[in-house]
Amino acid sequence: MVQGPSSHPAVPTRAQGAPVDRYAAAGVDTHAGDTAVELMKRSVAATHGPQVLGGVGGFAGLWDASALTRYTRPILATSTDGVGTKIAIAQALDKHDTIGQDLVGMVVDDIVVVGAAPLFMTDYIACGRVVPERIAAIVDGIARACAGARTALVGGETAEHPDLIAPDDYDVAGAAVGVVEADRLLGADRVREGDVVLALASSGLHSNGYSLVRRIIRDAGLRYDTRVADYGTSLGEALLEPTRLYTADLLDVLDGPDGGAVHALGHVTGGGLAANLARVLPPGARVDLDRSTWTPTPVFTVLADLGGFPLADVEGAWNLGIGMFAVVDASAAGRIAGSLDAAGIRTWQVGVVERGLADDSYVQGAKGVEGGAVRLVGAYAG
């Protein structure tokens, strides 16, 4: 599974007459990578069901697609993403066991937006120097999150780039493939006037807006190990809270009696609240998101206070407590919210879809999509 060249900064010693490992002498030690694979094999294998063939370590991950024959018209969905500069905080704290969940959340929760169930995922870790225990911790986090999202981790790569990446730096990325029956594909074409917009609570910052977060912390002269009373933890621990995974619980709703009442989903990632809802609404639809329906959690209010700005200034950067939107038929909104609440995701009504012209106070479409119009109104609940 996850393996490619690895490095170590020291030139290896050798017994008299033994060949010199020229790759290791150049800064790439493949033995460290092999050790990392051995450490991660068990957690990766735990995500494998009968559809996964070949196990860990092959050149390609194999997934038996005969399961798709039960679909009338299977539509494949794919997504790729990374974690961004949240990794800098994990590196600063030397804590690497949660960043994998952030990666999985960024990828599979994009796939479920169209109603698809993720089938399998691959990862890519680029680093300056392979530290087997660190790589294994990252991959273990990826694997545990894949299991939680009911998807298989079928392969990946760890690449070491001496002289290009600092020895203790790394970056992670991943991609996944999912499937949905064509007539169950979610999207703007299903949204109707009068539909209710439900907000699904986030676990914290998730994996967006961390360049601003790190600037605030730096300008305030704070350390990540500083205890923050409002957080009940250190600053760093609060900032590393992993991204909530919505996929499994949303698929349970979609497969349940009210699944047909779910018309669209919007994953709140880069671009913030209004933009990520606007892109899953049809042109001509508009929504006023009522700030008074929720109170942003302390991780947001403390950072805004430190930065000296109101929360409204970062509605396009941070999720402010909402990680996903669900646009649903009004008649089923209460039951769907109840199901998600019972699954541990606080869910509430935050708006209603209307028809009509939108003025410049609305965000209209996003990411190249000619979508609907969304704005935030009112004041946040105290």
* Number of distinct beta strands: 16
Unreliable parts? 1-15
Distance between the termini: 49 Å
**β-sheet strand percentage:** 15-25%
Q: Into how many domains do the coordinates divide?
A: 2
Q: What CATH first level of the largest domain would be assigned? A: Alpha Beta
Shape: globular
Order of helices and strands: HHEEEHHEHEEEHEEHHEHEHEHEEEE
Any idea what the CATH architecture of the largest domain is?
A: Alpha-Beta Complex
- Major sheet, described briefly? 4 strands, mixed
CATH topology of the largest domain: Phosphoribosyl-aminoimidazole Synthetase, Chain A, domain 2
Global structural class: alpha+beta
Helical element count? Answer: 11
Radius of gyration: 22 Å
- Average predicted local confidence, pLDDT: 89
- How much helix is in the residues? 25-40%
| Quaternary | single chain
Placed side by side, the strands forming the largest sheet appear as 3-6-4-5
Going by CATH, the homologous superfamily of the largest domain would be: PurM-like C-terminal domain
EC number: 6.3.3.1
GO cellular component, one term: cytosol
Domain PurM-like N-terminal: 72-180
Keywords: ATP-binding, Cytoplasm, Ligase, Nucleotide-binding, Purine biosynthesis
